[in-house]
Amino acid sequence: MLSTSDASARGSKLTLPTTSLPLLDKEAPFDAAATNVKARKRSLVKWVIAGVILLIVVVLAVVLPVYFTVIKPNNHQSAAASAPSNDGHNSAQPTPSTVPRVAITGGDGSTVTTDDGTKFTYQNKFGGFWVADPNDPLNNNAQPNSWTPPLNQSWDYGKNRIYGVNLGGWLVLEPFISPALYQKYDGASDEWSLSTAMAADTASGGLNQLEDHYKTFITEQDFAAIAGAGLNWIRLPIPFWAVEKWDGEPFLEKVAWKYALKAFQWARKYGLRVNLDLHTIPGSQNGYNHSGKGGSINFLHGVMGYANAQRAMEYMRVITEFISQPAYKDVVVMFGVVNEALANTIGADVLTSFYLEVHDMMRGITGKGAGNGPYMSIHDGFRGISSWSGFLEGSDRIALDTHPYFAFSGQPATEPIATGTGVNAGGKWPTQACNSWAQQMNTSRTGFGVSYAGEFSNGFNDCGLFLNGIGNRHSYGGDCADWEDASLWDESTKAGLMQFTKASMDALGDWFFWTWKIGNSTAGHVESPLWSYSLGLEGGWIPKDPRTALGTCAALGVDGTDFDGVFQSWQLGGAGAGDIPAASTTQFPWPPPTIVGADAVVTELPSYTSTAAIVSLPPPTMTATAATKSVDFGSGWFNAQDTALAPTAISGCQYPDAWDAEDIAVPPLCS
C-alpha cells in the first residue's frame, strides 16, 4: 500500500481499504468531546458552502461582462461574417487551421503574449482592455480606456476628445528621432541620402538596416503603453514608397507597408484609432528632410509639379481603396493626404484645386456620407487655420490639421520655464500656449469643421540634436546643452514643462503629440527630450492622465471661447455632405491653369499617361493560428468599379529630374 507521501508525490488519489474506517456504534454513550467535533465540522461545512457560493458570484461577475462584451458579440459577428455578402468588393479568404473558439482579452495586470511569443504585463489604470481573439482577428471590441468608445462604435467629434501621439520616425525616418542611424553615415541628412549610404554598406546589411529599424523602434508593447497612458489615437506617418518607388529613387520599396499592417492590428487589439498620414510626396511637398528628400519643392511647383501631383494622387487612391475596406474602416478612420505642403510657396488656389480633386476621387471610391470611408485630412500649410474658414463648404468629411510650434518661430526663447513648482510653474509659456491656440482652435471648429493639432510638442525652444536638420544652427539664445539631457533637469524645470504641456493640451482640445519616442544618439541617451512623450511620462513632465489638462487655460485666466460641440451636418457626413456648390468647383479647376516655378501653362508641362497597371496594397498574410471561420481581410481594393489605370511615363519622352525641376527650362511637349 502506498503511503500518503508517495501518493501525493505521484499525483495519485490515495485509497484506503474500507476495513480501516471505524463503524459508528448507534448505542455508544454520549461523548461531549465528540459532539463538539461534530459541531465544528457542521460549522466548517457551512463556511465551505458559503465560500463556494461567494466564489460562484465572483466568477459570474467576471465572466458575464466578458461574455456579453467580447464572446457574444464575436459569435454574432461570426454569424454575420458567414452570411452571404452582395457588396461585390471582396471575397472571403479561407483559413488553414482549426483554433478553439475562445476570446482572449485582459485588462490591467493581464499577461499579453505577442506573435513572437514575448510576454509582458499590460498596465492600464483607466479601465481599458485588449482583445485578441484568434477566432475573430477583426474583433473591434477593445477599449483603451473607459471614456473612449470602442472601435465598433462611432466617434463623436463634438463630444469625444482626441488624445493622440504620433509614431514619427518609425516608417518615415528623421535625423532627430533616429539620430544614431544618421550618425553612422557622414553626409546622410534625409531618407534619400541615408538610403543611398546604407545601400552601399552591404557589410552592415545594406537597405535591410531599415527593416531592422522598423522591427525594433516601435513594437506591440508601445501600442499597449499608449493605451495605458490614457491616449486613444495614433497618427501614423507612412512614405509613398510603402506602395512603390520609381527608377532612380533609392528608398526601401514596399517593406514599410508590412509594418503599417502590424500597426493596424495592434491598434485594433488595444482599441486605438488611426490617423494615417502620407508623410512623403514624390518630388517633395516642402523641401524638408522628412518629405523624402530635402531641398527643392517639386510637388505642384516647378516644371515637374503637375506630373508629381498625378503620381501622388494615385498613391492616395491606392491607400483610400485599402483603408475603406470593411476590415479596416473602423480602425483607420482618418487619412491625412499630404503632410505640411507649403501653401504659400505652392499657392493656396493651386493647393485647393488639388484637394478638391482628391476629395472627389476619395468619395468616388467610398461613397458619400458618414461611415463611407475615412475622413480626409488636410494640413493648414502653415498659413494659419483661420485662413481656411469656409473651405469647400458642402464637402464630405474634411478635417483640418494644424501643427502649432513655438520651437520654429526663430525667437531666442530665453524666458525661463523653470519658475517653481506652484501655480506659477512654467513662467510665461503656459499662458502663451493658451492665448495662442485656444480661441483659434474653437473658432476653426465653427468656421471650418473638425479641426485638430496633428503635431505639437514640449519644444518651447528649438534645442535638440538634429532638430533643425543636420548641420543647421539653433535660434535658442541660451545653451542648448541644458535641454538635450533630461537627467540634468530639476523639479522646477519638470513642473514648468508639465504646466506648459497641460496648457497646450487644453488649448488645442484635440491633439497628437510629436512624437511618442525619440531614439538614443551615439552618446547613449535621448538628445531631444522635449519631443518624447514616453520619456516625459517616465520622467514626470507629461501627465499620466491627459484629462488632468482640462481647465488649465481657465485656471490661468484665459478664455478660449469654448466650442459647443455642434458641427454643421455636412461637416460630419450628414445631410448635404458632398454637395459642393458649382461656384467652388468652377473656381478651382483640375488641373490648375498654371503652377508657380514653371514658365508655361500646365497643359504644356511634362505629364504622365494613365496606361500602367494598378499597384494595390496587399492584405496581411494569414498564419497557421488564424481563425476557424472565413475571415475577410480584403483584397486591397474596396471599389471594384474603380478600374482606371495608373500613371506612368509616356514612352519615348524625356523627363527632367522629378526631384529637382524648379525654375528650369520647360522641355518640348511630348505626348
UniProtKB/TrEMBL annotation:
Record field: catalytic activity: Successive hydrolysis of beta-D-glucose units from the non-reducing ends of (1->3)-beta-D-glucans, releasing alpha-glucose
Keywords: Cell wall biogenesis/degradation, Glycoprotein, Glycosidase, Hydrolase, Membrane, Transmembrane, Transmembrane helix
GO molecular function: glucan exo-1,3-beta-glucosidase activity
Enzyme class: hydrolase
UniProt key word Lipoprotein: no
Family the UniProt entry places it in: Belongs to the glycosyl hydrolase 5 (cellulase A) family.
Origin organism lineage: Eukaryota, Fungi, Dikarya, Basidiomycota, Agaricomycotina
GO cellular component, one term: cell surface
Protein's name according to its UniProt entry: glucan 1,3-beta-glucosidase
Superkingdom of the source species: Eukaryota
InterPro entries: GH, Glycosyl_hydrolase_5
Biased composition (Polar residues): 78-98
GO term, biological process aspect, one: cell wall organization
Spans traversing the lipid bilayer: 47-68
Entry EC no(s): 3.2.1.58
Cross-referenced Gene3D superfamilies: Glycosidases (3.20.20.80)
Organism: Agaricus bisporus var. burnettii (strain JB137-S8 / ATCC MYA-4627 / FGSC 10392) (White button mushroom)
Region spans: Disordered: 78-116
PANTHER family: GLUCAN 1,3-BETA-GLUCOSIDASE 2, GLUCAN ENDO-1,6-BETA-GLUCOSIDASE B
